[in-house]
Amino acid sequence: MGGTPPDLNKGLSEIEATLKDSPTLEKLQEAANRLQALARDYERTQGHAPLAADAGSTLQSRLADKLLETRGRILAKLAAGAHTAEEWRTAQRHADTWLALYPDAPAFREQVLQLWTRHGERQVADGAWSEAVRTLRRIDDEFAQSPAADGLRKALRARAEELAKEARGLPDDQAVRKLQEAAALWPSLPELRDDLARRKKQWHVLLVAVRQLPESLSPATATTDSEKRCLDLLFENLVRPRASASLGSYYEPELARSLPMASGLQRRFDLGRRAYWSDGERVTSADVRHTAQLLSQSGAATAWRDLYEVPRFEGDPFRLTFTQRQGVWDPLEPLSFKVLPQQVKGKPLTRADEPEFAKAPVGSGPYVYAGRKPEGQRVYAVVKANPYFERDLAIREVRLFAWSDPAKDLGQPTPHLVLDLGAKQVESVRKAGFSDIRSLANRRVYFLAVNHRLPALANLDLRRALAHGIDRAKLLADHFQGSGPVAKRSHPLNGPFPSGSWASCPPPRVPEDALQPELARSFAKKAAKDLGTLRLSLKFPADAPGVKEACAALAEQLAKVFADVGATLELKLEPLDAPRLGAALRDHQFELAYQHWDYSNDHYWLWPLFDPHPDALRPGGSNYLGYDGDAKLQSLFRAALSQRHFPAVRDLHHALHAHLYERMPLIPLWQLPTHVAVHPSLQTGDLDPMSIFSNIAEWKLAN
User: Which fold has domain 236-359?
Assistant: First the structure.
């Protein structure tokens, strides 16, 4: 369209001339109004899009730059001249309006930061402490721990410390008021919320009985059930998988402010602004991106790398975008990881499995690990309330101790929660005073892990002889089921998917019972012909209830199958404590091992266990079975991962189940419920057997 009218150039030059000296606030405001009018005239004459959309025109750029500069000078004048509450409100209104227009203008944002900081300092000087807290929160939300507000932070913390000190010599009712005021100003002051809970007679310690004390508390190295459960106390997920009887499987945001916005293959996350590491540093998108980088390098999670690119970080400390490499059935499952800090004690966290980090982890969860504490006849692993966790916690401390014998180990002080109960121990624990014993159906499946790196176990006939020769129903009844309703929650398995689940292929394509004595003898005869006398080791967890006896009976069953055809199979039983068993699996130092797989939800994500990537097959990788070279299996997995239509996904999982039944890369065993004893003084709501402590922030403990 036509060229720029000369009067627009002339008008802009005149405005620029009036702004050269030190104009008053009124002149600055008049200039801003004239610049807006010129901008509108320019848009009309040029037929262009709104002012900020076309930076190609010299005049338009001059108009935009001058208007931004003028508004910044107006803010500076308003801040310098603000004395009354109304004057500050006027300055804030301008700042709020213009900040939305210029989110990516560093110089202008700096002026807004100076305005807010000065306002907060003025509120402190006037003793308006609660208003100063709100101002600091606005600053931190928008500018992420800017050093410009350090003076304001120092003043608020000093006031909180002063109030806490004043409370020390006061009676409880007066001290509570002081401490509550201090907590409103600086809630992360060390010991403050604990002191407040004690004064209110609400300081509660939760005692939890577990099979073994946790040793390694990093998401990358946790092996035992107690270690994995403690992760929910110490770390937060980006999004957390949930499951309930009424809603089924779903996700809820945790560190994310909300579930991600989807655009094609992209998922954009906005993080919450109130998450801090237990060392006081703020959780940002750089931490999430760093965790994703560690995941992409980890042999235990190489499937994650196949599905997602490392997220883009575009400078916003609370926003980042993940891009899928392909469409997948459950796009949030790979994103439900626990987030790790980018730095610990001023040094980069370069490995997810860093041993020192696992001993003294830094997380953003509700609690922080405080080490071990001997007391009386027990040794406790102690976690204390994280002072930087935003929500207040009714339970201020959790103490875990090891138990094995209900009669000896569950006495005074009585635990509030008893975990890792065997079915045959339920009645003994009930007699010890626990009337609330919950048998929770879960998504854990048990199997014999097979090391395919060994020539004998690479033999299909041997694997099928093992799979079809085990009488699972008898082993369950004899060693795991207990009696009454408890027994009904145990199920023999014919594959890696939970019994009766949508992923489990129905008969006759896959027989309901994997026990097939005639087939077992036929395959045993073939295997013995090829391999001769067979001597294999079977490793299992030494302290798991019923497992030693079940493995011994299983070995007898299989020995008889081979003896019936004139062959020999000897299974040498090797009980190991949980850390040694975990190390044996990680280092591939096993032949057969009693093992399990935990599904986080009912989408039944099994790919990592069979991931053919070299990193997954190396020591420490997710495919510790060493099963590789099965082109059909990999094709079925990839097809199932990429489908979004549920009937197609279901059919592919049925095909997977059928193929796994034919090849038996692992020997399916059973599903067992999780038994939990809850003391009457503890209110937990619904418990997730896979993540017992996931909702601990809602738990209540009576005095």
Answer: Dipeptide-binding Protein; domain 1 (3.90.76)
Where are the strands (E) in 317-473, listed by range? 319-323, 343-344, 347-348, 367-375, 378-385, 395-402, 417-421, 436-440, 444-450
Q: Name the burial class of residue 112, with classes exposed (0-12), middle (13-18) and buried (19+) by CB atoms within 10 angstroms of its CB.
A: buried
Give pTM, 2 decimals: 0.87
Distance of CA 370 to the CA centre of its chain: 21
Domain boundaries in the chain? 6-141, 236-359, 367-441+675-701, 444-672
Q: What DSSP assignment string belongs to 540-578?
A: EETTSTTHHHHHHHHHHHHHHHHHTTT--EEEEEEEE-H
CB atoms within 10 A of CB 240: 22
Rounded-to-integer distance, Cα 384 and Cα 59, Å: 61
CATH number 3.40.190.10 is the correct assignment for the domain at 367-441+675-701: yes
- According to DSSP, residue 180 is labeled H
Cβ atoms within 10 A of the Cβ of 36, count?
14
**Which CATH fold would you assign to the domain 6-141?**
Methane Monooxygenase Hydroxylase; Chain G, domain 1 (1.20.58)
Whether residue 267 contacts residue 287, with contact meaning beta carbons closer than 8 Å, is answered with no
Which pLDDT score, from 0 to 100, does residue 175 have?
Answer: 96
Q: CA end-to-end span of the chain, whole Å? A: 80
What is the block-wise mean pLDDT of the chain (703 residues), using blocks of 10 residues? Answer: 60 82 86 85 64 56 86 88 88 90 88 92 94 93 88 96 95 96 94 94 95 93 92 96 75 92 87 92 93 78 75 83 83 90 93 92 97 94 95 95 90 93 88 88 94 96 98 95 65 95 95 97 96 96 93 98 97 94 94 95 88 89 93 92 86 97 98 94 90 94 84
Residue-wise DSSP of 588-623: T--SEEEEEEE-SSTT---GGGG--SHHHHSTTSS-
Please state, in angstroms and rounded to a whole number, the distance separating the CA atoms of residues 475 and 672.
12
CB atoms within 10 A of CB 445: 26
The CATH number for 444-672, chosen from 3.40.50.720, 3.90.180.10, 3.30.1490.190, 3.10.105.10, is: 3.10.105.10
Q: What is the CA radius of gyration of the chain?
A: 32
Report the alpha-carbon distance of residue 177 to residue 234 in Å, rounded: 30
Residue 298: its pLDDT value, please?
67
d(CA 104, CA 386): 34
* Residue 608 contacts residue 616 (beta carbons within 8 Å): yes
In this prediction, residue 310 carries a pLDDT of 86
Three-state SS for 440?
Answer: strand
Q: Is 453 left (phi over 0), alpha (psi -120 to 50) or beta?
A: alpha
Q: Do domains 6-141 and 367-441+675-701 have the same CATH topology?
A: no
Alpha-carbon distance of 94 to 73, in angstroms, equals 12
pLDDT score for 21: 77
Cα–Cα distance, 199 to 15 (Å, whole number):
64
